[in-house]
């Protein structure tokens, strides 16, 4: 093992099996790939993994979506309930966002003990989606001023955690909102809100629905994000969990899909520093990614409409 | 830029800052930091033997416990815990004490805006007081971006609520690092980098970089203040001498 003292990677890797080298020296394994501007899974540094999106994955929910970025899988579903709005905001509805990481998603999560990262992602999702009314105006969730408004429960389940959790969670959340079908409701004789089921057309004719037009939420600009790992001078877009655990400095850029305004730029510490030039590069990568994701989302929506 | 601010402050003017170390006698290291009315107390215990599960035993483990002023710990506090932990992982020499855990307990005494920067300063000062080896100091600042496009540094609670967007930034202090790692990594020195960035609210990309510049300009004066405060003898030592 005298080769370790002169620090030459070549000598080591040549007389060792690739798998063993990967397990014993994960950082060197990755650095050798980075030097060749390629990643262990064959991607160039700035490219995200294949992304697929399926709308309407949960039949019982009002809106749902299944997003996959590489192996990272997120299932998002929205349930709408009628609630009484607060006195301060009689014309506004409410959106409650919860992110779940069940033990099925990763070997690092033990049953019974909640994942530390789950509430943090939950908070970041709420900040991104609710702030500045990016997704929808709360006013659109109002039914009868001061009496009734929609409460949207958005639950996102992580089924497979393989890096870039926030990106996949945000994509599934946004897609679930785009798929959301607001149920038809009407006022009954007591002035109460009642649901009208799809097969009960007769009832619909009898009583005027309260929300005839507002069946879909207006989504003019939606947020999309890209997580990058920073390692020395390299920027790796959309890291896998292996890359995230080995190179621990990451940066998440969230951009608005219509104006490319910055919704959030999050770099939660980590061993490395982010230089201004690297941040600029990440923003550029995020811009490209937003266009890519927007296309995937449009395709998923048109597929849905054809069905 | 003429912006009316409470207390007649200028846009780039920070509130008076104070930092006292060794405020608690039982903790291995402690510090109290205030920024205007915002006040945070931090205590350090450790390094204790062993790391938590799933942590790398070849490095020191850092544990942050955030205590709000009142009530239960919520998602906001969990996020601050995670950010503070990862920020401290950046400044600590983790390989100096492998297979140990250092706990940092942060108690919020009063929140009047710019809470996270104040907590970062308090945690750093407590680590210094405990004698934990650090690469450099984390100097944090909150920049706010108003509807009209002005950038105000160090907003108080009222200003935070009125602002369109907030940017929390943490920079390495402008003290020369003893490590040569930064210089061999490339032409950019450690001072140009940021340790932590957290934003709330929508803003143009250019404004973010503007905030970055303005925040960076405040690093050197803040470093000098913190250094001076930390060099002054602690109140416990003073009373012992008397």
Automatic annotation (TrEMBL), chain A:
Q: Which UniProt keywords apply?
A: Cytoplasm, Exosome, Nucleus, RNA-binding, rRNA processing
Instruction: Tell me the leader sequence span.
Output: none
Q: Name one GO biological process term.
A: rRNA processing
Q: Where in the cell is it found?
A: Cytoplasm; Nucleus, Nucleolus
| Example GO molecular function | RNA binding
Give yes or no: UniProt keyword ATP-binding: no
One Pfam entry name: RNase_PH
Q: What is its main location?
A: cytoplasm
Q: What is this protein called?
A: Ribosomal RNA-processing protein 43
Q: Which organism is it from?
A: Penstemon smallii
TrEMBL record, chain B:
Indicate what this protein is called per its UniProt record.
Exosome complex exonuclease RRP46 homolog
The species is: Penstemon smallii
Top-rank lineage group of the source organism:
Eukaryota
- Localization, UniProt: Nucleus, Nucleolus
List residues of the Exoribonuclease phosphorolytic domain: 13-133
Q: One GO CC term of this entry? A: exosome (RNase complex)
Spell out the family assignment given in the record's similarity comment. Answer: Belongs to the RNase PH family.
The taxonomy runs: Eukaryota, Viridiplantae, Streptophyta, Embryophyta, Tracheophyta
Q: Its Gene Ontology biological processes?
A: rRNA processing
State where it is primarily located: nucleus
**Which UniProt keywords are given for this protein, alphabetically ordered?**
Exonuclease, Exosome, Hydrolase, Nuclease, Nucleus, RNA-binding, rRNA processing
List, alphabetically, the InterPro entries matched.
Answer: ExoRNase_PH_dom1 (IPR001247), ExoRNase_PH_dom2_sf (IPR036345), PNPase/RNase_PH_dom_sf (IPR027408), Ribosomal_Su5_D2-typ_SF (IPR020568), RNase_PH (IPR050080)
Classification via CDD domains: RNase_PH_RRP46
Q: Name one GO molecular function term.
A: exonuclease activity
- Determine if Nucleotide-binding is one of this entry's keywords: no
Q: Which PANTHER family match?
A: EXOSOME COMPLEX COMPONENT, EXOSOME COMPLEX COMPONENT RRP46
